[in-house]
């Protein structure tokens, strides 16, 4: 979470339809020591033009990242085969 808070603090927030949104992917370390990938989406909640709080959704995308890596590796192998 420290990495997430630091990223938000660095201003990785964009304006969209009057609401401030932040969406990013992070590599974090789980309690068991394994690396996991998460996708975060943060919205600043406003009421009467004043900031009331933040709403953050965090989604585990580790399986998706592993699948993307496997597909890229297979693609690279096929390119090497056809270029040989």
Please supply descriptive tags for the structure shown above.
Beta-Lactamase; 84 residues; 4-stranded antiparallel β-sheet; 2 helices; alpha+beta
What is the strand and helix layout of this fold?
Blueprint: H1 2-9, E1 14-16, E2 19-29, E3 35-47, E4 50-60, H2 62-83
Antiparallel strand pairs: 1-2, 2-3, 3-4
Order of helical and strand elements: HEEEEH
Terminal CA distance = 46 Å
Supply the CATH class.
Answer: Alpha Beta
- What's the tally of helices? 2
Largest sheet: 4 strands, antiparallel
Q: What are the low-pLDDT stretches, counting only 5+ consecutive residues below 50?
A: 12-18
Briefly note the structural class of the backbone.
Answer: alpha+beta
Summed over residues and divided by their number, the pLDDT gives a mean of 82
Q: Into which percentage range does the β-strand content fall?
A: over 45%
Shape: elongated
> How many strands in all?
4
Q: Say what the CATH topology is.
A: Beta-Lactamase
Q: Record the strand order, biggest sheet.
A: 1-2-3-4
User: What is the C-alpha radius of gyration, as a whole number of Å?
Assistant: 18 Å
What's the CATH architecture? 2-Layer Sandwich
Percentage of residues in helical conformation:
25-40%
